[in-house]
What does this fold into?
Amino acid sequence: MKRYGTIVLFLLLGTVSTVNAQTILLRGTVLDPSGAVIPGADLKLFQGNRLVGERKTDATGNFSFDVTAGDYRLEVSAPEFRPHNQNVRVTPNMRPLSISLLVATVNAAVDVAPTQDNVALDDDANLTSTSITGDTIKALPEDDDALMAQLQALAAGTGAAGSTATFVVDGFSNGRIPPRDQIQQIIIDTNVFSAENAGGGPRIQIITKPGTGPWSGNLNANFNHQYLNARGPLDLNRAKKQQKIFTTSYGGPVIPGKLTLRFTARSLQVEQESTSIVAVTPSGPINQGVFTPYKNENLNSNGQLFITKDNSLSFAVNYNTNWSLNQGIGGATLPERALNFKGHNWNFQLSDRHVFSPRLTNEVRYFMFHNQNSLLPITEGTAINVLDAFNSGGAQNRTRRRGTIYNFGNTLRWTVKPTVNLQIGTDFNDYKNYSSSETNYLGVFTFSSLADYSAGHPITFRKTTGDPVVNLSQLEFGGFVQADWRVNPKLNLGAGVRYQAQQNLRAYHNLGPTAQIAYQPRNGTVIRAGARVSYQVYNIGNVETVERSAPNHQIETVILNPSYPDPYANLDPASIGTSNASIRTRDPNLMAPYIINSALTWEQNLKKGWRFSTSLDMTRGAHLTRTRNINAPYPGTPLPVDLFNALNSFNPSVQAGARNQVDQMRPLYPNVGNIYQFESSADSFSKNIGFRLYTPNNFAVHRIGITGFVQYVLGWAYDNASAQNHYDWRSEWALSSFDTRHRLITNLNLRLPKDSTVSFLTFANSGRPYSLTTGRDNNGDQTTNDRPAGFPRNSLTGPGSYNVNANFTKTFPLRKPESATTASNSGSGGANPGGGQIFVSGPGGPVAIPQGGPGNSAPGPKLQFNVSANNLLNNTQLRSYSGVLTSPLFGKPTGAAGGRTVMVGLGLLF
It folds into this structure.
């Protein structure tokens, strides 16, 4: 018996040992007080003092850990909710956890304990993306257009040169971005290998602040005056300027746990001399600033309605109006060519999120955007262009537009099993556009040089006639399926496919696959790889251009070497008709262009929380849309010297004979007008090697918290998007005008004591290529992009530049800090037990910082003082050089960024 008892005891111990060693799935859902799921919540699982794993809840609020049986401690946190700590005993076949977070109160203490700086497999831990939060957002421009331009510059610095990022605001990819004060987080991702992403290129995700917290608001005023600024590098005097921005926002729970609302209003008014003119006229050089006032007003409201614990409704309404004077001038364009702009737009968006079960979520989206604007020239008259010298006369761009975009989308997210997620979605876009454009209805003379202008010998005269009104509609459809499989704790796989189709383009085979893999060979190292094919939409703007320039709408008459100022004086009136009109058409075999993206990244933990990543990405564009003149004089090469001289002769009879000889070289003669055809025949290729170094999340030196990254990108970009010879595009394969060989970006945020922060954002890049041109029409195709023999396209390189933007913020509490005892007792789950102190990592271990130091502030209303500087070092940033041989500015800069500007702001947070 004793022997049998021993055997039974060993069997029981073996069974217990087997159970303890078995991998068990710990899973659950994180909810808010109303029962709605909380995506993106941070979870940390500890066993004793050892961190077992970190996760973020997925889009359905779910999470899972693969662990062995035992006792654990789970920590859960999310913005605007109280931290939650829970002891968990993991046993086989245990039920999923349901964790409800409480809304943070104004008096809740903030616990900023050292966070982990671990590289992980999750997509949101991708080190090659750029995340902007907190104080760094305050350093971004207040003006919407300037903010979009800076974010696009960040996307271009991290991805393929010349790529344009898609803005996605709370899941919607249309409309304008919200005011800066409404933004909680910005994520710039240059390689998105998910079929859900329609464009396939860089994506800028903007997540607005939720209204689930307590009632709060702010009043902000920002001011700039010329005395705070420096003189521009190409200006003789400091430009006059006065800029005022007023913003207010207030929101919170109208019905706690049921309805939240937030209202925002903003007014921006700028009175300034900007857009420097650098021109040379027969009377001498002109160097002056131009008074360009601008005004923008914006009203916005957004909120959430929690219908049931499983169903929530998010909504937003936005109205925007703006006007600006003296637009479209600067460089060689004189003030008389100015345009005045006036417009308004509004949008409405609605999304319904339904949680059918912890494993199944569906989201329905509706979006409507209406825009109406007009451009009016301040001068009516014939335009005069002298290449890279001056542009004068009338602007001739009287335009009125209105359009409406309707978007309907649906996304189903299904957790097939804890390791497999499936997404299925559809998107419909419907465009309704009206436009009336009277561009160049009075004609424009082009002169090669100042000498030709003084002698009255223009190269060309162009004039548009016809019906200016175009009405268009376009329906677009997109559908996708995306599957992600967590094979094991070390390996993630993803694959999907997206289908695109649209009206106005007979191409219905646009099926683009995508795939990605993330592998963790050891702790602290992650290798990612991905590739995708993305079909691009044939833009409704291209459709409008073709429709507008069709013979039944508008035609452009081009006269070579006309008389001046009457271009018709030396012409036979019978010869002026549709046969010499320039039109635009579309290739009957036009197809949707597509982009092939591929990337390989290596992410690595370094010592003491430092992190490093390196990446290689390649982008190839095929069947890209370009315009080719299919009626250019054949063979497209420079004309013989005697024929060129005769064509440019001042003897009308000699010139007429030469023109007739050139016209007979056109394939569609006796039609002697240019026929610009949209074709799917252009190609592009780029490759980039990037290196990025991150600071630890809670790095501190002498009580100064330091966070940020530094990145260097070495890239190449090629294309054949333009050509001087429309019959030999192969020879035009060259560096793209977007090629920027070296790019350096640094983003540094310093958290100082006494609730102060300083942020620095630095861009540095080498120059872009540009072409050397003769300033003449050497091949008779009525354009002046001809180059001297032996000089390929984009053979010259422009100047490099660097720019440093800085922001300083200081917060003044308007309520005295609570006592240490009160502060330690007001939190949840033991938050901030140190009695008003927070701890950050320092060189010798954790450093205690009193409340009000980096990353923390006293509760209650606050006064915030802000100073931001663009081009802090006031360095010269030349934008372009003239490559036109006949220009008096040849080899000289024709544009530059402005000098240092300083904006001062004061805000009340309550």
Summary: Residues 319 and 346 are 4 Å apart (CA to CA). Helices lie at 2-21, 135-138, 144-158, 450-455, 540-548, 641-647, 652-663, 820-825. The two ends are 77 Å apart (CA to CA). Residues 1-21, 105-115, 819-858 have pLDDT under 50 and may be disordered.
